[in-house]
Fold these 3 entries.
Entry 1:
Amino acid sequence: PETGRGQNHAQLQNQSGADEYGCTLNELKTLMEFRGAEGIQKIKECFEDTNGLCKRLKTSPSDGKCLNERPEELDNRRAVFGQNLIPPKKPKTFIELVWEAVQDVTLIILIVAALISLGLSFYKPPGNTGHSCVPPEFALGGGGEEGAAGWIESAAILGSVLVVVLVTAINDYTKEKQFRGLQNKIEQEQKFATIRNGQIVEISVADIVVGDITQVKYGDLLPADGIIIQSNDLKVDESSLTGESDHVKKGLAVDPFMLAGTHVMEGSGKMVVTAVGVNSQTGIIFSLLGASDHDAEKLNFTFFSDEPTENSRADGQINHDHGGQEMIPLTERVGDAPEEEEGEETDGEPKKKKSRRKEQSVLQAKLTKLAVQIGYGGFFVAILTVVILIIIFCAEVFGKYNQEWKSECTSVYVQYFVKFFIIGVTVLVVAVPEGLPLAVTISLAFSVMKMMEDNNLVRHLDACETMGNATAICSDKTGTLTTNRMTVVECYLAGKHYSNGLPKHSDLPANVLQPLVTGISVNSAYTSKVLPADKEGGQPMQIGNKTECALLGFVSDVGRDYESIRQDITEEKLFKVYTFNSVRKSMSTVIQNEDGSFRLYTKGASEIVLKKCTSILDQSGESIKFTVADRNQMVKDVIENMAGNGLRTIALAYRDFPADSPPDWEQENSVVSNLTCVGITGIEDPVRPEVPDAIIKCQRAGITVRMVTGDNVNTARSIAAKCGIINPQDDILVMDGKEFNRRIRNSKGEVSARFHGIEQSRLDAVWPKLRVLARSSPTDKHTLVKGIIDSTVTPVREVVAVTGDGTNDGPALKKADVGFAMGIAGTDVAKEASDIILTDDNFTSIVKAVKWGRNVYDSIAKFLQFQLTVNVVAVIVAFLGACILKDSPLKAVQMLWVNLIMDTLASLALATEQPTDALLLRKPYGRNKALISRTMMKNILGHAFYQLIVIFVLLFAGDVLFDIDSGRGLSLHSTPTQHFTIVFNVFVLMQIFNEINARRIHGENVFNGVFTNPIFCCILIGTFILQVLLLKCTTKNSLAVVLWVIIVEFGGQAFTTTGLSLSQWLWCVFLGMFELVWGQIVSSIPNKNLPKFLSVSIGKSEPEVDPALRGEAEDTVPDLTDQNLRRGQILWFRGLNRIQQQVK
């Protein structure tokens, strides 16, 4: 029935489309399956031409006006042809998240042990109470009702496990919801240029309908399928669908079919939308696959955004995973050949499939190793505890008292063994910082949220922390270091250099004015416009390419209107367009005159265009010969003069072709030659006022800033000096791309198999001193980034951040440890390849990212310092207590509670500290510096020493000091005692006050800035309100203390506690607060007196991979799940693995 209804709906849609639009949905879907000449023939057969297709769809191809003028037209098109949405995979339910949380190995062990203990607590051997099976000191039960309540501890363990599972699942659910909300914000900002009713409007990609006329240009990610109706040198990367890396040329006579999810790599044009959403070619494939994560990954589609969303997504924005920010990998890097699949052979040798995983971040690597180290230690101590307890039990029962194993006593013995096993699990639980994954999650999520306020849109969570360890930043100039508010301030026209004011049209000969004004107007993207200021006294708004806007503004300054020229010469009348790209560094447009002749207009980098000029317009507007000597003189007198003032120089030129002998327009080199130079313009792009101070902060923080730009070397040097990147007294290098390649390539200039002809040793001689790389190509940027990362001339590997805005910046952005894409000027391809998007295109936002990254690292270190202190004390107390007292003073359920409450609140308190400028006053930690420094280890061991002294004094002398009954040596399931309650109470209080000591990890004042974190203050206030709580008063801000007091006073059998008197409470508080005094004593111990081994190999990342091997397995790091490590040895392995998947 469902199938039938679906078929009927499709038939109704097709019938409706045929009746109203002259073509059906199925006809359009079938049409988009064709390619090339076959597709062109199909269009002719069905629609005559593209104009016929537009006529059928009732759309005007020139101005996008709908021939059906009715308000509900857009809704009607969506009903007939579908919406531009692909239904996402259903997000995980709360029950599924609960099931994932319960898969944790530690929790499974606790559940099994608790169930066994629970079952045995109800079993009574017939005719035997159990007392005859063991000596009196091992007797079961303490008598009376309490002794019969042995099941309570097991039930409490199960209850605690349930709470842990629910908290984990709720945290994951909330986390996914936050990330989906963040993704919704991203999607709302995704716009596409569409022509409706004669106006170019930016609309959401989800609002695009069949029949829309959309503009496509260099860098766009196509949101729907369509047919080209006009194109200029259009080339598209279809590798995401076909796997072919070669760019496909598009045009009415070549291949007019445009597909959703593909990237426009060159040129511009217009297309009529023919299929959207699930009816596009991409949507059809994903519908067949059910848009499942597994199958989608096998297809390796490339799309802009990488985060899951709760809502339907626009075509081309396919949802793959709802588990966090998991990036969908690029099918291949822009410009690279497809990667070899596993099993293929190259030169007779099988080649392994390369991993697309980046190298682990600094913090990831250190946390992974720390997890392994703690796991081994905890596993060893836990097994040792169980073995010792069993040996003591057997030695005393079967040795000292000479008892024999009786069959009726088996259940009693097993019950004791289960108790020993639970004690071992307790040691295991306290040995491992289970709160660490939560602290990592909270710190990263908190930082991502706050970084949004600082104009950093984080796409990959690990980029947050990686930026804290950045040692090099390769930054663009335009828009990042400068305002990207370009204005022509100087020019050279008609043989005169206008350096103190621009000329008016009356100052220029007609033969100069006409090619100047017309050339700028038509030889610029028609999407580039200068609009009037939105408020009185404001500056005109620049829409589109800022360099072109500066030139269009120059036309207005001269006293001419570029719009009137564009109305006469519409985009459809442009005969041929050679669009700007990084290779040409110029743009050329051919128009046909009324007499049939042609004129080519060219603009671009001054040195490059002038080399193609053989004549120039003089004072009278006449064309005179332009020799090599003339060119060199102009470079010296005009271009270098402008560049020395920090101006970008753009040359303008033209060439005429007769009507009777036009050239072969595909031979670009011969067409764009023998030009006539019109003039040179000097465009000013002022340095952002806040950038010099930001550069100083970076340099003080140990970060080297390099400018990589396509501008003239003199312009780049001038801007770099203004920014503070270079100083006259520094021994640095400033060079252009040509000189850079000459220095780093071998003598023959050959391309080797290892590193594209580049010798690392040659590169190592250049990059340490290089500060400015001018006239660089995207390949040069990628080469520089890869060379710095692979270099071994520094003690530790450089951590490199890169900014980029163009499509061809993709390889460098992907290669960098952190890639920054420009949110305003950046193309969709650059954004997809990036880790962080700068929503304001401002360099100072990168500095803020560095500060937040270092804050993440320090926040995790603070939590580790606090948590490891808890763990060291708890493990030693549990181990020695078990071995000496045959029981752990800290019960399993107590430690579960401590882990749940203390870890959660501590991670909130310590992982949400605000960053300060002091973070930029030190060098990066680096990959080889231990995660736990000597100062941290001093604090951990110092506070652990105090806490152990207090705990053991209370354990072995507390009954005497407080004049209470001893809790030592009691039988299984005995009544809770005040003695052990005090031990547990003091242990928890010392941890609460030690949180204040953990706020600083470099020996600073722990009270400094304590009130800047309201979350921490809430916990701190809760501790000081303890005395008020004793008078039965509570406050909302002291939830942890309230719960804790309830446990101690009313937890009873479940938490093995009993009520305390007022004096006992005061002594507990005193011993806890003395942690603050002890912290000052510990911090006064000089670090130089501590042995260096205290910080060696504790969470230190693995040695770097040999660069020679990096070529074989570039950017690969074995997944933690691939290592031969037993899961029981890494108790929080699943939690960490979950976080790492989320981070990536």
Entry 2:
Amino acid sequence: MAQNMPRKYPHIITLSLFASRFDVMFILRRFSSQNEQQGVPDVCTLLKHASFLVPLSQEHLVIKFCQLMHHLLNQLKVIMDEQTLDVLLNYTASALKMCSTWTHSDVLLALSTVVYGNGPQCHQHLSDLLGEDGVLLLYSAPSQPNMELRRVALNCMANICLRIPGQPPLDDQYRGVCFRVFLTTLQSPKPPNTDELFYCMVIQAALKGLQCCLSGGKWKFNGGEELGSVLAILKRLMFQGAPGVSVEWPAVLYPAPLPQYEGLSAPKSAEPQKPSEPPKDNKKRKSRGKGKKTSTEGSRGDDGEEDDREAVSALQKGGGREGGRGEGESLSKPSAPSLYPSWKLNSSDSEFSDMEGNAQSKLRLNHGHVRQGALHCLLAVVKSVEKRTLYGYWSSFIPDSPTGGQPPLTLLTIILKDPSPKVRACALQVLSAMLDGSRQFLAVAEDTASPRTSYTPFSFSLATAIRELHRALSLALLAETAPQTLTQVIKCLAYLVANAPYHRLRPGLLSPLWKQMRPYVRHRDVNVRVSVLTLYGALVTTQAPFPEVQLLLRQPDSGSSSAGSFTPQDSALSWRQRDGTSSPSRTPVTPSQRSSHTHSPHILRTPGEEESSPPWLLQLCVSLVTQPREDQSDSEGAGTGGGAALEPSPIRLEALQDKTQLMCITVLLGLTYSENYLVKTAAVRALGVYILFPCLREDVMFVADTANTILATLEDRSTNVRAKAAWSLGNLTDTLIVNMESVGVDFQEELSDMLLLKMLQAATRASADKDRVKSNAVRALGNLLYFLRRSQLTRSAFQRPLEEAVRALVKTVQSEATMKVRWNACYALGKAFRNPALPLDSALWSCDAFSALCHVVTSCKNFKVRIKSAAALAVPARRSCYGDTKRFSCVWRSLATALENSEDTNDFLEYRYSASLRHTLSQALLHLLSLSQSQDMPALGQSLAGEEGKGIKEHLIRYLRAEEGGGEGAEGEKDAGGDGFNPQQRIGCLQQTLIRLKGLEAEGEGGGKEERGKEVVVSFLEDLTKTCEELSSCSAGFQKTET
């Protein structure tokens, strides 16, 4: 076989003959040099040939080959093909079966490298590895005495569970086996006579595996006990090795009852936690013990290393963090009060003279890695568990009781006291994930009134938790010096501000934070500056009372003049004159023009001029996005996060003067021509926000300029830019509809026909784009088809674009796109049907539109899409819009069939929309009856005469008596033009329909069939009306009797 070896791999012969003499690193160096000189070698071919050259009987050679396999795949980042993967898996699996136990550590190390991210492709070998007697289960069991084997086996299982983006997840059967092994490992106590350092490494491997399980696809916990067990063990490991923490941790955390979610049932325990009480396991305080930190812990940057070095002297003195948790926080009082934590104080470097060989420092380093891994797992749990389920566990991780007394051990304890900046950053990421999307939950919080003395309301406890988060994060902001962690603190504050209901809280939270953030605007780290702008964006769009926000915006800039030197009066930034005499500037301001005013010295203004100047925050944003970048490398070093700094926040233009509004508009229109796609994305999104403001949406010139800008960005090669442009186009067309209904024809006539035609064609093209773009493109199409006037629709230039637009909507409704896209397409057709000028009765595409909606209303699995299609079918206000008798009867049959099957679903999540679906379908059927003519009577009579008619009657009675509906059904009713009808009004409309049908006269040769059909329909409606009146009388009599 050696004769067939490729000549470019002569070192394979060396490996087979002299591997017992030569170290594997020698061969690795040869590979590295070959990689640099000749390019990346064919490592897969090499490893396959080597697996045949190294027999399993030569165990020393097997070890060397496994080491080589591990180093090559790791260093060269090789992506293996299926054949190589199968060969190496067979080799390592055979080695585990045939070789001695002393070789298994290296074999498992090689196996973990081979299976890294390839778990789904290893299905043929998973039964041998993870089966009932699998080798990985044997070596990873808590009874395994060899801790190194146990660690490597757990690491191998973690790599099997790891999911690479774009690949399918691991089979649930094997993922569940691995999950139970990881959880059992974390719950098992440390074996006796086991070195603490090795045990920490085992725990790290188990935490890594648990994180891969939770992040490798959708995961469902088996009941609340399992979720509570995972959260309990993660909370214990969050404080692994923390000095002074010695508490009895519970085995399971139980959720606290949440009064705002009445439908949720929480598992009961012997002593359930109450929202107003600290958790059971938080009886003792965390103290600061002795300990050193290695420089590796702060390896993210020099600042992190300095932080860890500065931690030592205060830690060895046992000092607490005075400002961290309030009174009584530390076990020993510091000599002088300080807002900075003990681990920030300077210390002598002499204590680190021999850290490399110090076992205690290595142990502390590994304890920090355990805490970091536990927080990563907790972050994965937060992202995989439904928000409403997680709210019950908030009190275990976020303090929800007033400060004072013994503080509980929570995420804030880690944020304020942990000596490692990486661990603190992880805790902040977890807290940010918990706060993200919690607006509905936090909306209950209120402390404007004094609480009752007998008990603490849940709303007051939640408000106290918000105040405690503000206090702790503000202290962390003062104390933190590591730039990466400081960035996370500010981001966490942004999530808190974006979700907290400040209008229900006592004032005094936002103003101090606003002032506290001012120095960080000029921080030397670009990521900190980006996060500060994100926080300010959250502050100006928060739910706080508007006068408070306006006051904060109007506060003068007390800092340096570098950010306040921008003068909006400069003619280079004027957008256009309000009288329309000058044309808009389509070209961004040149760098020379920018520098002429952005770097001008600070000019003293009179009090009157100060009052009329723009807010300092607006001046800062404008100067940041218009002036040339002074430090190119620093700005580019921000990576993708740098785009957030350039995104103009939707500041409330209503509060600003005209010239300030013009400055904002000018900047945004210019930024849409930026070469940076992040800038372009943010700018076009901001235009989509501005177009919704009442102060701008009726300005025809601004609408036209915004439309032209959006149309240009819709052709961008970046999907993100096109998606935001489509979203903004949807908002702009929403504005057109609002203006049409409020201003009237005058606004429609002022808009250029050519511009509307371009918008229609651009939206049609975008409807064939990716789903992210298509979702809003079809929304824009529906609005445009509703907005166009008869004089425009009859023009030859609009005929073909009109047909293409409708067919694009029909194609989207019938496609396999996401349900959100199909929902928007059905909504768009309903919008279009509301335009009386649309030729529904004569156009060729009309039949396709109705057929698509009829198909969706009966067959779509998603009930919300069915609701929108039924609402769209009920929109046309004239019988002629439904076409001939055949099409009308097709629509009727589809609606009747959908009503009959409105409860048939295998998905419980869809079942909750069934009442709304029946509500909309019933309204649509009555709408068809109100428009029906004599030629429709035979088909209607045939439908209402049999069993189908009895089912329809039952549903119509519920609708007429308002026994069910709302939700999505209310939306459908609004689109159909019958929103807000009470039972009396619905019965009144039914009686009018009955009177009209009685007056119909049969026409043509089929008069007999039409008359018989009319008799059936009239009898059906009379019986329906009589039943509803009788039920109403009985209900009224019953209520009178009770009174």
Entry 3:
Amino acid sequence: MTVEQNVLQQHSQKHQQTLLNQLREVTGTTDVQLLQQALQVSNGDLAEAVAFLTEKNTKVPQQDETTYYQTSQVASDRYISVGSQADTNVIDLTGDDKDDLQRAIALSLEESNRAFRETGITDEEQAISRVLEASIAENKASLKRTHTEVWSDSPNPHDRKRVDNCPVGLKNVGNTCWFSAVIQSLFNLLEFQRLVLHYSPPSRVHDLPRNQKEHRNLPFMQELRNLFSLMVGSKRKYVDPSRAVEILKDAFKSSESQQQDVSEFTHKLLDWLEDAFQIKAEEDREGEKPKNPMVELFYGRFLAVGVLEGKQFENTEMFGQYPLQVNGFKDLHECLEAAMIEGEIESLHSAENSARSGQEHWFTELPPVLTFELSRFEFNQALGRPEKIHNKLEFPFMLYMDRYMDRNRDLTRIKREEIRRLKEHLTLLQQRLERYQSYGSGPKRFPLADVLQYAMEFASSKPVCTSPVEDIDSSAPPGGTTGIQLPPPSSAEQDSLPPLESSGPASGPNTAPTAVQQQRVPIHKPFTQSRLPPDLPMHPAPRHITEEELRVLESCLHRWRSEVENDTRDLQGSIARIHRTIDLMYTDKSMMQVPYRLHAVLVHEGQASAGHYWAYIYDPHQRCWMKYNDISVTKSSWEELVRDSFGGYRNASAYCLMYINDKKPFLIEEEFDKETGQILSGMDKLPADLKQYVKEDNELFDKEIEEWDILQARKAQQEKLALATAAAASAASSTSTSSSSPQPMSIESSTPDNAVPQHDPEYMEQPSPTNDSKHLQEDTERAIFRVAADQEEKSPEALLSAAIKLEYARLLRFAQEDTPPENDYRLQHVIVYLIQNQAPKKILERTLLTQFADRNLAFDERCKSIMNVARAKLDLIKPEEVNMDEYEMWHQDYRNFRETTIFMMTGLELFQKANYVEALMYLIYSYQYNKELLSKGLYRGHDEELLGYYRRECLLKLNEQAAAMFENGEEPKVITGLGIMNELVVPCIPLLLANDTERDLLAVEDIRNRWCSYLGQEMESNLQEKLTDFLPKLLDCSTEIRSFHDPPKLPAYSALELCERFSRVMSALGRVPTEGR
């Protein structure tokens, strides 16, 4: 066979197996013969093959031994992702009909050879392309929607700036979180990272590609190099992988909004990388067989050992990602044990060599990077769609592979036999223990020791000679009070008992029978009584028992119970010892020589048809786990990884485990400079062409930051200019209105030359006595009148000083008073807010002076003179005495506090009226603004837990409303419900995820679970289509915050109105059960 034919045959095997794997994954059928038959009938059309297998819906006939043997070698491939270097040496024991087989192979190779020379693509690759197209066409028209960007970049580049050497995230460019999870796992393998970064295209790359494969793989390799270089040296917090993703999407021929299967993508990615490195290796070779670094890094070999009718066979196979079944197993070792043994394998090493058939797999060569695919999806024949398996599956941080190695075959078989024997004995012991712990012959069973204890308690109870019915007072009313006591009637007298007469004044002949009936009810219905008679024993007791009988019975019961307890302890101890023996079976040094450390865990959250992917990757240098969730890269822990990855707890579970050989540190070792011996980091890692590429991108980002800063500085300057202009206009207006009356001090004349007129806060201004801050004017006048009454002879300046002290003392009491939530004095006066937040003394003084400088104080001459003194003092304050920027900042914070309060108050009012749609935006903005305020101080805002509770509850209420509309099934309601989810609920989920509190995370889980629960239900095709379209958006775990529309416009409130309304709303919350109070 020529080299070209050998290569073609290898490609043929690889892509035929890919096709079989896809069909098996979709249908859940494991019979290889049946799968091959379906592909033959459908001419390689995957959609028709699925229909053939689904419609057949019959049990597969049990294979006879000959049939099994003919397919055993193919069946072993279900664990294989065959590389182009696959070993094709097989010991053929099928019979003598080899000529026909060789002719068929030759014809197939000749035809494949011709197609390959013409297009560079094998028949199998063309078949895969047709299958993918058909599959996508069949995949419901639900995925034909036009993709819209849900998440947008922050306009502020500082928010997108990388902090120190934090790992760089990857932007989700449209249902591509699978790309991010896989690429980050590979990028953090430093050996793989070096291979990609230092990959140099073949010298003939500038010529026209020889075939379509080169035309596709080499550009992808270059884009992957560019992406990796940005992940190494970019100044950005996250980078855009769009170019590499687009090449992949073109290959998959899918719509851009479809969420690809990750295992399929990973297979394709490794195939492309393998091909790209193979092209380079073939060009560099000099007469010797080329070495492909991708094959050496990710591919291993195992030996399939089988037996049939006394004849043994061996078959060496190559594997990449090793698939493992999850259903029915509790940990990774159980999955591996089941995967390594197929059928009845006792005959493989038995002396009789009986006719039983089966095969074992033994690893002969493990790759440095060992990847396990956890099969968490199965096809539901009844529903006609795949479903996710949420079972819990544990896996270790350190995995020892010695027991699966071919060189330990004999020792492992001995240990497996010993474990099998121990498990059989364990089963017997557990069954025996179960008889002790679940004793009885009826449906209800109890521990035998407890049964004996109950019998002993019954025997030793106080004897009662009367009937349990007779000793109850028949005249006692149901309420438990006693009436007239009568002697207990005999059984013969009960039927002829005359009506009882009550001694009460209201009793009569007509009421007596009714009273008797009412009094007798408790006798027959004791649950209607409120208490038992005092002389009735707490438990049933024997009526007659002698001391001798009791002594003998107690002696027997004590002895039996002691025997049962001893037997139970012995059984439990034996079971524990067997478990410990099994656990320690492979812990001797000889079976701990092949250690593999967990490098990455790829997690899927959601259902089979939709979900979100992220990765946990171990950082050996910081000795911690990192969570890579699209653009978000955060520190994590083993506990969080276990919670999200083991399964059985939520919709999240691991679907891929990546282990690395712990004895090959080069996989994760940093690169050193050959001259200085220093570790290379950042841009120093990159070759010259990629350094230039990253440098240019960083320059673009620096320019973006510079332009942003210039723009913000210009806006700030314009705002200051507008503020100064408004202040000057206000001053000019006040001058014209006050020129008609004489003033003791002219404000304009006393203004220093270097002082810039300042615009006072709007809640401090008094343009008219009826404005929103009228109460402020009244407070000021009240303070002046009280001081003037005590100090009539004082000058205006002394009166001003005394009035300010009096007003400050009043407000200080408010600030120090411990008030209920509905009475918030900060809303009444800015000074209370400033005192509680420890504002500087100069800020307080200027604010109080501004209050007393109000032009609209009473027309009383004393008030006017005090007002003029206050205004003069304001004008005399020099810029170096009071920092006006700081003064404005404090008052801006107070304005923000008032606005946040109005948002909060409005949102709570709407929530109480069950108007959740309108309430949500108010609650969202109030929470966000309040969080910014609280970041500056504890008293800058409101109760964060309270706002968080109602924000969360509002989202849950909207989710319930939307789900109810969806369940209704009517088109208008379904559209409205999904509109609520898409426009309101889904954009707010990242806010809850970013907050990262347990209650918020549980709320998100509840929302998602409600919609995921519909996946297993029967529904109309149009509803299924809408659900399939909606779920990927709901399950996207990105914490990137959506840019919302402008906040709702707020009405104007005076301080008095605001306080009253706030008090009313907060008082109403006291009647609402809330964990946030």
